């Protein structure tokens, strides 16, 4: 990873996590710069929010391509043309093929609304409530070909309260996502968390973060 890598945030919707990442990257000394927000949907609400924040935007509409490989080749070409070093998925609602994932191996992060490996896939808050767990949360992980199975960079936990419904639990988890994702991106962009032999390796002098950040093995 080069110093101060140029990151692209990939979105499909309103870009809630995108906004917190853009704000975090403005801080002096933050180890990444947000150089592009890209969506597969031309009407994604997050594009206007990124433009208002002064971030360049782009669209690669998956509907304009005959199949997933053709879409991903165009996506990859656009990212490389923009000089992108690091991908950050923030509500990007496309399942990526092994070809694309391997092309960006160790340089692509995702956030998932559960404490992986629990509750992969969709409707994670409903899954958590149905399972009767007392703790739920979110996970930032490197992307691998298997869905929601990549090596974990960081996690944040929230309590599941007796009167919770999906909306209440989702709101509590989203608040932690907004804290966790910028912190996890900083670890990776700053070279303090790297993908090595299928696991996340952390710098020996990694400081213990405050608040929601949980660093495996620290």
From TrEMBL:
- The residues annotated as the active site are 112
Which residues are marked as site: Raises pKa of active site His? 148
Which pathway is this protein assigned to? Answer: Purine metabolism; IMP biosynthesis via de novo pathway; N(2)-formyl-N(1)-(5-phospho-D-ribosyl)glycinamide from N(1)-(5-phospho-D-ribosyl)glycinamide (10-formyl THF route): step 1/1
InterPro entries per UniProt: Formyl_transf_N (IPR002376), Formyl_transf_N_sf (IPR036477), GART (IPR004607)
One GO-annotated biological process of the protein: 'de novo' IMP biosynthetic process
Q: Which Gene3D superfamilies match?
A: Formyl transferase, N-terminal domain
Cited function: Catalyzes the transfer of a formyl group from 10-formyltetrahydrofolate to 5-phospho-ribosyl-glycinamide (GAR), producing 5-phospho-ribosyl-N-formylglycinamide (FGAR) and tetrahydrofolate.
Return the similarity comment. Belongs to the GART family.
Protein name, per record: Phosphoribosylglycinamide formyltransferase
Q: Which organism is it from?
A: Methylobacterium oryzihabitans
Output the lineage of the source organism.
Bacteria, Pseudomonadati, Pseudomonadota, Alphaproteobacteria, Hyphomicrobiales
Which gene is the coding source of this polypeptide chain? purN
